[in-house]
Amino acid sequence: DTAVSQTPKYLVTQMGNDKSIKCEQNLGHDTMYWYKQDSKKFLKIMFSYNNKELIINETVPNRFSPKSPDKAHLNLHINSLELGDSAVYFCASSQVRGGNRNEQFFGPGTRLTVL
Amino acid sequence: AQSVTQPDIHITVSEGASLELRCNYSYGATPYLFWYVQSPGQGLQLLLKYFSGDTLVQGIKGFEAEFKRSQSSFNLRKPSVHWSDAAEYFCAVGPYTGTASKLTFGTGTRLQVTL
Fold it and tell me: Which of A13, A21, A91, B27 is the most buried (most CB within 10 A)?
C-alpha cells in the first residue's frame, strides 16, 4: 500500500500555463507538506497544512496556491508557470500529535518541466 | 535560524568498505535530527532519527548515526557498504514539538559505490 502518493509523476508544460499536482496520504496523519527540490537537489519547504489549516507558508510566489480539501489530501496549483518553476516537487506528511511526532514521510515526487 | 551543513558533496567508496557521511547542524533548541536517502528518481526514505536517549541510533539497511552535542554533529555510518547503497543522502534538523515540523535539509551527499 502506498503511504504518500502524488500525481502526476511527470509533468511537462509550456510557460504561462496553469497546472496542478495532487497528493494523498493514507497514514492517517494530520499534517502535510510541499517541498521543492531544485536542480542541485536542494530541498526547501514551501507550505504545510495541519488539519486543513495553513501553518507554514514560506517565501513562495503567490502563483503557487496550496489547497487541502481534507486531512488526507494536499494539492498544489501553480498559475502562469515560469521556467524557474522546473523542479521536483515532493509531498510529505507527518503526525504532529502523539508518538513519532514530526517524522515526515515523503511521496515519490513530481518532476515538473516548464518549456 | 536553523541550518544543516553536509561538507561532502560527493563520496566514492569501494563495496565492502566502511562509510561515514558528515552532518553538522545549527539549532537554537533541542534538535530533532534525521537522515534520509534518495535513490535515483525516487522519493526520500527515512533511514533513522534522533531526539533524545542513546546518542547512537540504529536505522534501516544497517545504517547508524551518532549524535554529538558538543560538536553539533550527527554523522551517518555503515560498516560495510553494498552497491545498492549508491544514492543521495540528506541530513535534516527540525523541532520535536510544535504544530508542524519545519525541516531544514542539508545540500546532500552523493554516494558512489565502486565494485
Answer: A91
- In chain A, residues with a C-beta closer than 8 Å to the C-beta of B36 are 106
| Grid cell listed for B19 | 562509510
User: Most A CBs within 10 Å: which of B33, B38, B99, as the mutation test of the A interface?
Assistant: B99
Q: Which residue of B has its CA nearest to A10?
A: B41
Q: What per-residue confidence (pLDDT) applies to A1?
A: 66
What A39-42 contacts at long range (C-beta under 8 Å, 24+ apart), as own/partner pairs, is A39/A86, A39/A87, A40/B107, A41/B38, A41/B88, A41/B107, A41/B108, A42/B105, A42/B107, A42/B108
- What would the pLDDT profile of B52-110 be if each residue is shown by its tens digit? 888 999 999 999 999 999 999 999 999 999 999 999 999 999 876 666 678 899 999 99
Task: Measure in Å the smallest separation between the Cα of A18 and chain B Cα atoms.
Answer: 24
> Dihedral (C-alpha) B52, B54, B55, B61: value to the nearest 10 degrees?
-100
The 10s digit of each residue's pLDDT in A6-37 is 999 999 999 999 999 999 999 999 899 999 99
Quote the CA–CA distance of A103 and B28 in Å, as a whole number: 19
Least CB–CB distance from B101: residue in A94, A106, A109: A94
**CA separation for the pair A15, A18 (Å, rounded):** 9
Residue A54 binned pLDDT confidence (cut-offs 50, 70, 90): confident
The amino acid occupying position A114 is: V
| Helix/strand/coil for B85 | helix
